[in-house]
Please model this.
Amino acid sequence: MRIPVINHSRHPLPEYQTPHAAGLDLRAHLPEGPVTLRPLERQLIPTGLSMEIPVGYEAQVRPRSGLAVKHGIGIVNSPGTIDADYRGEVRVLLVNLSNENFVVNDGERIAQLVVARHETISWQPAEALSETERGSGGYGSTGKA
Model:
């Protein structure tokens, strides 16, 4: 699949880091210098990228596992969705869940982008739903840790 992209940063376009990776790494575009995230602070970090996602697909912005485990850095609305009709700059809503400041540097890999197909649905009003073993059991209802 080919996706039109405009790169306003001086960084390379996102790349897969391994041959079978699902996500491409997004980099911070911070021409005015590093951004410091204090504990529990969140900030929108620009990437300098705008793209044209095909109709029937979305781009999901997801956290990088290395930043999460090593530094407590996550994404508040994970996964963030980039819809097919959005043409603005992709920005990543990072949050610092650690007890220490974290510095985001220009060009640093801050998130990953996964492009996925989705369906458009229409609701079918019903009076009842089919029975299942689980039924209406929600969080923790399966009894497994």
Summary: The domain at 5-117 is CATH 2.70.40.10 (Deoxyuridine 5'-Triphosphate Nucleotidohydrolase; Chain A). The chain has a mean pLDDT of 94. The first helix runs from residue 65 to 71.
